[in-house]
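New to this. Explain the following:
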Amino acid sequence: MGIDLKNWMQNLPDGSDLLALNLCGTHDCVTQHIRLPHFFCCQDLTIYEQLLLGVRALDIRVRADGKCLTMVHGIFPAYNHSCHRANLMDMGDVLSQCYRFLDECPGEAVVFQFKNENEQCFDNLFYTYIKGKEPYWYLEDRVPTLGAARGKLVLIRRCKMEPKPDFTRHNTGIDFSTWVEQPEVIPTALPLCTGTADFIIQDRFKYKPKPRWAQVIRPFLEQRTAFGGQYVINYLSTAGGLKGPRRNAKYINAKFMDYPLKKGVYYGTTYVDFPSREQVLKIVETNFE
C-alpha cells in the first residue's frame, strides 16, 4: 500500500489510542546544528523536515534562559543554523515548525516529550510558550485518543514542576516526572506509572552499539506482543563508546531494518537517531492491515 508519510494518521480511526500506535520518534531532535557534532549531533533534519518524514514523537531537551528556553543536548546548546550565539535555538523556533506542520496536516498528532534541568523550565514552557497557544496543545494527564489529539502537540512532562494554583492535571501534560535514568550497562527496561497509565521504557544509553543491539534492543523487540494496556517506549540511540551517535546509529539502524517487524504487534514509540524514510515507513506500516 502507498502511505503518505506526511499525513499517515489522517485515515486512522478517531477512537485509536494514540500511544497504542507504533510511532517513530527522534531522540535529541533539535541537534542538527550543535558544537562537537561527533558526540552531540543526533539528527540531520530540521523539526519540520522530521515531521514531514513521518516522525510523530519529539524528544526535547532544554535549559532556562531568563523566561525563555534554549534547546540543548547535555551542556551544549543547539542552533538554528551555524553555531553562533545569534543562531541559538529557542523553544519558539521549535514550536513554529510544529505549528506550521499541524496547520498543514490537521489530521496528525505529535508527541512532545519535554525534559528540563529544573522546575523553572516548566514554568517557562507554560507561561512563555503555551499560554495563548492552548488550541495547539493536548495538556491532560492521560493518554488521548487520536481524535482528541489531532492537530495538537501531546505534552509528556518528563520533569518536575513547582506546585502552583495555575497548574492542574488538566494543563500540565502526561506526568513522567518519576522517569528514572538508565545509565547502568544492564539490559533491563524499567516501568513507569503516571497514575493514569503504565509504561515500560527501554533507554539503556551507555552500551556500545553491538551489545546495545544484541543484548538490549533485539531482545526487547522479541518480547513485544499485541497491545495489552502497557505502553512501550523504546530508544535505539546510544552514547556508549567513542564512535559517536552517527556511527552508532548507522550500525543499530541497519540491524533494525533487517529485523522483521510484524503487523498486529505493538512496538510502541521508537526513538531513533538519524532515521531514514525507509526506517520511518517500516514502523508506520505496522499500523495498517
Observations:
- The two ends are 9 Å apart (CA to CA).
- Residues 244-258 form the longest helix (15 residues).
